[in-house]
Amino acid sequence: MKTASPLVAEQIVHARLACVKHVPVVLQNPEIALAVLRATVQALAANYLNSRFFGSGYYLNQKQLNSKEMKNILLILVILFLASCKKEEFNPNLTKEFSIHASSNGANYDIKVALPENYNPEATQYSTIYLLDGEEIFSFVAEKSKKISSDLSVLNALVISISYGNDRVNDYTPSKASEGDGGAENFALFIKNDLIPRIESDFAADTSRRSRVILGHSFGGLFAAYAFTNHNSDFGNYIMLSPSIWYDNEIMLRLEQENRNTNKYNDQLVFMGIG
Amino acid sequence: MLAPYQAFYNRLKDNYPSIKITSHIEPHLDHMGSEKPNIIEGLNFYFKNR
């Protein structure tokens, strides 16, 4: 009997190892489950193509997995992946929710606020982390904020999720271009004039610029960059994740230069990340 | 997409004397896959340096 090609054999071995050894990890991590699932599908497809179109070519020997076993593994992985996709939810007892109207663009935004454990509004003023795309990442950020601050033995922050009250791309883009209509200025005014005052009156939030963080990914990261250049007095901390700086012929580079003299001596804490 | 990102990062790093800035690249993860790892990196950076 002929053996499988090195590539197919390697993929099968990886899929087998991933499936057998890492089930507990897979159960906890949808991203890993998806990666394992993808690798397995690729291996199965390669095996099928080899068998189907190169009939005289490669087959699997008994030490490797045959197609039936691969299908069984695939089925198990699909089940594990679906099980792992259960959306994590931050402690409801520590989550406050309200809706707020934006005077700048007329939209209504649902807001969630994650309170630190042992939240003590009488004695403590907390930093605030404002999340763009909040509906997608609120629980994850709230959980990580709790864990990281605990690990570092520092005071946790209030985590504030901003939902999609208006069109996301419109809200997050600073200019009208092919992808968006340039509603970032109105969205920034909503945060400045409506949301921040509401948070800082209803919760024990530190009201200084240096205690406010804005966090966004992709177009959300673009908006965080816009907040840096055009609303630097509102936030002292920026977490920009894969920000779409390419947008509209890299308009952010121009806005940065236009506003540099106004912002350059402000204290800034900036994290930029990309994949 | 890396070139504009790097250009913006360099602008901030080179022209703001009071800035504390870092850049983190997840080399093996794509646009969506890097989001959560970078959130963790970003929160760590914030809580350590604020």
List its salient traits.
heterodimer, A: 275 residues, alpha/beta, 15% strand, B: 50 residues, alpha+beta, 58% helix, flat
Describe the protein's architecture and organization:
Chain A folds into 2 domains: 6-84; 92-273, Rossmann fold, CATH 3.40.50.1820. In chain A, strand 5, helix 8 and strand 6 (237-241) form a beta-alpha-beta unit. In chain A, strands 1-2-4-3-5-6-7 form a 7-stranded mixed β-sheet, with helices on both faces. Chain A has 275 residues and is an alpha/beta fold. Mean pLDDT of chain A is 84; it is low at 1-15, 17-22 and 56-63. Chain A is built from 9 helices and 7 strands, in the order H-H-H-H-E-E-E-H-E-H-H-E-H-E-H-E. The radius of gyration of chain A is 24 Å and the shape is globular. Chain B is α+β, with helices and mostly antiparallel strands and 50 residues long. Helix content of chain B is 58%, strand content 14%. The longest helix of chain B has 15 residues, at 35-49. The mean pLDDT of chain B is 96. The chains are: A alpha/beta (275), B alpha+beta (50). The A-B interface holds A 31, 127, 129, 137, 140-141, 144-145, 148-149, 152, 154, 210, 213, 215, 217-218, 225, 228, 237, 239, 241-246, 250, 252-253, 256-257, 260, 263-275 and B 1-2, 4-5, 7-9, 11-12, 15-26, 29-50. Strand 7 (268-274) of chain A pairs parallel with strand 1 of chain B.
